[in-house]
Amino acid sequence: MPIYSMTGFARVQVRVHDQLSYTLSLKSVNHRFLDVQLRLPSGLDALEMELRKALKDHLVRGHVELTLSVDRTTQQAAGYNRELVAGYLGAFNAARSEYGLHSEPDLNAILRLPGALQSENRGNGDEDLAALAVSVQQQIVPLLEQLRTMRAREGESLDAILRGTLDRLAEAVEGVAVLRPEIEKQYQERLTQRLAAATGPEFNRQRLLEEVAVLVDRSDISEELSRMTTHIGHFRELLAAGGEAGKKLDFLLQEMNREANTLLSKTGGLGGKGTRITELGLAMKAEIEKTREQIQNVE
Known about the structure:
By secondary structure, this protein is of the alpha+beta class. The chain has helices at 45-58, 82-99, 107-111, 125-198, 205-219, 222-241, 246-267, 273-295, and strands at 8-17, 20-29, 34-39, 62-72, 76-80, 117-121.
């Protein structure tokens, strides 16, 4: 199973009938959780619930925007407001009779009255909404599969980047392991010098014990190297397993960063080969930080 990126886009255009078509689009970017935003025309509350359920069933993480754009081409016919026109004519005839006038009503003037002319929509809005909802429900799963396909392709690119980072991290760990005997030798020499100073004319047993404890603890970096190697192996296993790996990978990187910090603190201040270990430790931290940026987009 591949790992999935949280970046993706999918769109479908559908004609329901001659007067009704729509465009349904999905866009997703990275987010800590699944954050869904729907942009639908009014009157589709039931459809919104179904779409939210479908998104939650198919996606785990990411900020997801679903947009439904509807295009209606309605057939309209001109008409007039019969009650308004009849009322005007009735008032005109009553006034003409009462005052003995001989003029005739002006039809153009009547039709210019506010509300006299009306457009008659031959479509049925409720039927269109019902047909639209059925069609969108049929399209949402294929559209989600289209989105998942794109997110999988993006995930393949991320996988290649992450594996390259792991290779460089493993090389740095191996480089430190090779230098470890030299570091231990340097610590032994420093310990000898400090022991000589501590057991001089003013011998201080407590100071001697403290120096020995500190240097023995600082000289051993085997645990950090071992844990870092284990973390790298676990990271590779998670990549190979795929699926919902983003949060687990992010946690592993935090642990790797902790080991790199400890290694640097134990080997800081040494000259010679110690300087090279510092360089390798800093290189580890740089690779870990780059990887954490990439992991933010893994589902």
